[in-house]
Amino acid sequence: xxxxxxxxxxxxxxxxxxxxxxxxxxxxxxxxxxxxxxxxxxxxxxxxxxxxxxxxxxxxxxxxxxxxxxxxxxxxxxxxxxxxxxxxxxxxxxxxxxxxxxxxxxxxxxxxxxxxxxxxxxxxxxxxxxxxxxxxxxxxxxxxxxxxxxxxxxxxxxxxxxxxxxxxxxxxxxxxxxxxxxxxxxxxxxxxxxxxxxxxxxxxxxxxxxxxxxxxxxxxxxxxxxxxxxxxxxxxxxxxxxxxxxxxxxxxxxxxxxxxxxxxxxxxxxxxxxxxxxxxxxx
Length: 283
What we know:
Low-confidence stretches: 1-19, 144-148
Subcellular location: Secreted
Oligomer: single chain
CATH superfamily of the largest domain: Frizzled cysteine-rich domain
Number of helices: 12
Radius of gyration: 22 Å
Family: Belongs to the secreted frizzled-related protein (sFRP) family.
Organism: Amphiprion ocellaris
Keywords: Developmental protein, Differentiation, Disulfide bond, Secreted, Signal, Wnt signaling pathway
Number of domains: 2
InterPro entries: Frizzled/SFRP (IPR015526), Frizzled_dom (IPR020067), Frizzled_dom_sf (IPR036790), Netrin_domain (IPR001134), TIMP-like_OB-fold (IPR008993)
CATH class of the largest domain: Mainly Alpha
């Protein structure tokens, strides 16, 4: 996934500034294999696009896939709309660029994910280059409930401590000192491209629920793996799965941080014993 960011940033190195709004364009159907923008809300796009790509099969479709890992992190709910307005601009009588305010909203949420991989927000996506709200442009729209805003969110963080073969007291202390504790099986796919992709395999089981919600936690942990892919790469080998006990807390700003992780192997009787004792344990 780290390599994806490098490819995507190189792809954005220069075309946007050179795009000529007066040049001749054509409308084409968004192809089914262009999954990043297939369900964006319209079916036809303009070529060349705002990144200067004119070859649908040779440039647009493969370059659009470069952004899929970033969108999977859920860094901003309108990241897809912003990126697709550049990759696959809607085919109308006039060019519709993203508004500066939409760029700022997406940048403020997604730039930290790029930074987590060691890359800055691309200079060609400098938000000052996009039109202001009073111009005709794609503006941000708020359609998220107050409840959704209050849910914990994953964020970039230092890699959590990983304790192999811990003592029972060590595990119980971790349960006491953190907001939540869960068991989850982390799976790392072995993709043909060589890029890692992480999944939560099966159900997430609660030991201490804390502020987490049952229907949201599996997705939340999956996003954490995608954002913190460097840490995740150290947790499980390609093509393998590993069961972990994960403990952590929700920070004052609402972000979730994993703190101590315990790989749960069959021989680790202390972890199983700690989980059984937890029901009657007093911190």
